[in-house]
Amino acid sequence: SMAANHRHVPVESGTGTICAHEGAVKDDIAGGTVSPIYMASATRFPLKEGVPIVYPRYASLPGVNGVSTKLARLDGAEKSMFVASGMAAISTALLSVLECGSELVISS
Question: CB within 8 A of 54, min separation 6: which ones?
């Protein structure tokens, strides 16, 4: 799994250690000491029976998962999510709490 390929630092670690090491991607190919940079927006991943298919650009890239893990740890949150734009963030936040038929009033 992707999570198994990320480093986790001890709970009592300071902010600097968390920023430097939490969520770092292990470089199993070259043995690098820092997370490798992945230049692709889609990756090949194994499909297993019973595992839902996830759109490759959404939460499946190792670098995005690493930064997401790091940010969640720094904020004391269980998880965090990265999106491509501010509008995507606003839409995601609103759609997660509004129900069908809800009304939203916004002023400038």
Answer: 60
